[in-house]
Amino acid sequence: MTVTWEESGWEQLAPGVGRRRLPGWDCTAGLVAGADAVLAVDAGSSLAEGARLRSEARELTGRRVTHLALTHPHFDHVLGAPAFADAEVYGAVGLDVALAGRGRDELRADAVRWGLDPAEADAAVAALVPPRHAVSGEWTLDLGGGRQALLANVGPGHTAYDLVVLVAGDPEVVFCGDLVEESDEPQAGPDAVPSRWPDALDRLLRLGGEDAVYVPGHGAVVDAAFVRAQRDALAARFGVSE
């Protein structure tokens, strides 16, 4: 039996499209339902959180998640991915390398540093499987019933592997990952590429246009004006010429 978006704690952004603000790090997870397939955007910070998202997605759509897009390789977005073991997983080119070997050690250390229980971090990292599908430019997913989702590699910026998801419709919805943040200033860690970040936001804005709904990796939904202002602030912050 399906439930409504409101009953489930999800925010509906357009017909068949919604997002959830997860507790702890206020990380966003997205959901796009077509007639034949269901796409999740990011997977939460642990196996338990990923499993909850998977279960809620089934309650909302009546079907399993068939596709998972990972916007970038930070623990609060990817450590729940093993809970979607039967989904086709997509990421920007190079994300598979970032989530393997030494990258796993760094991912685990980062998760624990930010407060994830070490045992939960160990379990999630051990189960993590790199994405099967690498997006180098753009990749369109046909979810059925006229529903399409465009996966676009617009980075680097927040990381070297930034993927965004554009869902056509009225309105269009753009899942931005942490290229855009509303609840705090955009976080530029050691894996950020600040000199390229403003360009990544320019590409994101060209994809979505002026009337799209933009979904940050953290915080409330914003509009194009907010994204443009954040782009300009990042350019000033990092001394990037216009």
TrEMBL record:
Residues 26-218 form the Metallo-beta-lactamase domain. InterPro entries: Metallo-B-lactamas, NDM-1-like, RibonucZ/Hydroxyglut_hydro. SUPFAM superfamilies: Metallo-hydrolase/oxidoreductase (SSF56281). Pfam families: Lactamase_B. This is MBL fold metallo-hydrolase. It comes from Streptomyces cellulosae.
